[in-house]
Amino acid sequence: MYTTELKDKSQKQAATPLSAEDPERLAAFEARVAADDFIEPKDWMPDAYRKTLVRQISQHAHSEIVGMLPEGNWITRAPSLRRKAVLLAKVQDEGGHGLYLYAAAETLGTSRDEMVEALHSGRAKYSTIFNYPTLTWADIGAIGWLVDGAAIMNQVPLQRTSYGPYARAMVRICKEESFHQRQGYEIMTTLAKGSAEQKRMAQDALDRWWWPSLMMFGPPDDNSPNSAQSMRWRIKRESNDEIRQRFVDATVPQAEAIGLSIPDADLKWNEARDAYDFGAIDWEEFYAVVRGEGPVAKERMAARVSAREDGRWVREAALAHAEKRAVRLAAE
Ligand code: FAQ
């Protein structure tokens, strides 16, 4: 259903001068990017390239970590032991993704503490999608199916992003997201084929998660300030709108297969484009959520801040233990 194959269109991007830094180094850097070489942590890179990567990778990491909260809300209420074990494993995977991504960003010279501080003080963003509440069990199905489905669409091209540590983290993450998408779709299938009430619950979850899922891909291309530069640097390999369209085209038949309807009166197959036309996204809502006005934005940040505070003694104890151990080993 989902492929990890990369349909690369960024090859077509012209080699445009990237910035005004040391021309020789810059030319060598550009040539490597153009040749699809990975840039590695100790390689020279333009400052703006480094900044863009820290911004995107750390925001991606924050999204994984904050993204544990909506599903974590249902671990104790999963309807069976099997569902609980699967959900626990999935939420744990998201924590792991956050850690690989923080580690990838740290190779660019930013500490984890700095990144976490930027999140907690509201300076760094995380995905809008995690500012919506999980009201019923069907929301767990909808998140796996739609949110992980959208995450895969966006992350498959990132397996060939130009920065080596980010690209390699993506390979493993995509494999795990693929399992997450399937478990979500399986929950939705079970509910959609269940009692009338279960089917209503599944439809209600789809109604609430559909539009926020389309917003995950970011603003439209003509309103995406970072895209042009990121495409030239091959950090982004495909545009926000291209990936959003691919997600719609893959997901609509999946909804039809289980008898659910996409909540979009304008959704229509377009023969000429070989793709679905779909209705207008409410960008006002998107920007409000980006500004921190999402339905449960305050709860999300409060939960992250208190988790950090509650875990302080563990970090301090681990550090004290490591120091004692180092002294003991040195003495021996
Ligand atoms: N939410 O110029 P662009 C997941 C911001 S992981 C919030 O287009 P760019 C796994 C953007 O940062 C989901 N902010 O920006 C999971 C920029 O602001 P800035 C996360 C958004 O970077 C599943 C401004 O708008 N995935 O779900 C959003 O070129 C289930 C202008 O936008 C990633 O982070 C948004 N949706 O393209 C976990 C993938 N969209 O930074 C748990 C990596 C845009 O200049 C459960 N990231 N903004 O202040 C990317 O691919 C890119 O960063 C984009 C945005 C495509 C998200």
**DSSP strand content:** under 5%
Mean pLDDT: 94
* Structure classification: mainly alpha
Each distinct ligand: Phenylacetyl coenzyme A
Q: What is the makeup of the main sheet? A: 2 strands, antiparallel
Order of helices and strands: HHHHHHHHHHEEHHH
Specify the helix fraction band: 55-70%
- How many E-type strands? 2
Question: What strand order characterises the main sheet?
Answer: 1-2
Cα gyration radius (Å):
21 Å
Which assembly state applies to the chains in this document? single chain
| Uncertain spans | 6-18
How far apart the termini lie comes to 57 Å
Separate helix tally: 13
Question: What report would you give on this structure?
Answer:
The protein is mainly alpha-helical. It is 64% helix and 2% strand. The protein is built from 13 helices and 2 strands. It has helices at 23-34, 47-66, 68-72, 81-106, 112-120, 138-158, 164-192, 196-215, 227-232, 240-257, 283-293, 297-310, 312-331; strands spanning 268-270, 275-277. A two-stranded antiparallel ribbon has the order 1-2. Strand 1 (268-270) and strand 2 form a beta hairpin. Helix 2 packs antiparallel against helix 4 and helix 4 runs antiparallel to helix 7 (164-192). The model is unreliable at 6-18 (pLDDT under 50). The site of Phenylacetyl coenzyme A has 29 residues, from helix 2, helix 6 and helix 9.
